Automatic annotation (TrEMBL):
Belongs to the ABC transporter superfamily. PROSITE patterns: ABC_TRANSPORTER_1, ABC_TRANSPORTER_2. It comes from Skermania pinensis. The lineage of its organism: Bacteria, Bacillati, Actinomycetota, Actinomycetes, Mycobacteriales. One of its GO terms (molecular function) is ATP binding. InterPro entries: AAA+_ATPase, ABC_transporter-like_ATP-bd, ABC_transporter-like_CS, P-loop_NTPase. The keyword ATP-binding applies. Residues 2-227 form the ABC transporter domain. Gene3D superfamilies: P-loop containing nucleotide triphosphate hydrolases. Transmembrane segments: none annotated. This is ATP-binding cassette domain-containing protein.
Amino acid sequence: MIEIENVSVRLGGRVVLSDITATIAAGELVYLLGRNGAGKTTLLRAICGIVRPAAGRLLVNGRLLSAVNRPAVEIGVHLGVDAAHPGHTARRHLRWLAHAGGIEPTRVNAVLDAVGLADVAGRRIVDLSLGMRQRLGIAAALLGDADVIVLDEPVNGLDIDGIRWLRGLLRRLVADGRTVLVASHLFDEVARTGDRVIVIGDGRMLADAPVGEFVGAHADLERAFLAVVGRSSAEYPDAAGSRVR
């Protein structure tokens, strides 16, 4: 479970997030939506303990991550494909993460198999395609077998086979009772797999609702989103011509 309680974040003297409150339960796939610069990645980084909130608190499975001895087994994180040293091989990168996180090294081969990278595990990361690096980042998130998984734009760079694979993986994680939070711009995937959406704009919470309820009378998820974030109905008409709250 992830509990976000009245969280505000300031970076460089600027308020990036303001009074965000939400709970993502076990067995739930929640998508975090927002325009570029809305604060999605900052919120994910705060949840993972990379960014310190100026106010409020963030709990993972009922505890502050700062009080956890091995955070890598509490929360699995993939926040971007550039996190790995390009000169390392895929296997070496995961072995380093396992050592740093106090994770059994046998997990490395298990997650390489799980994400379909076993055959390229000896290749340098710089030589991997974007889709392969996305899979490697997802493997890193799975390494600690954590109950909470946080992913930032994991679909970017995946081909159709990769997208279908990720779709199935996310639903299996949820079926296994894990908490999954994903930031995404791909509304088709949100509509296909999501249980709930959280929308933020200009650092503030704009909506938090089950996908079907959020769409409501709008023609689709895209139009519901545009209504919430403030695009004019004349430019992007929806089914009802109304604003979703």
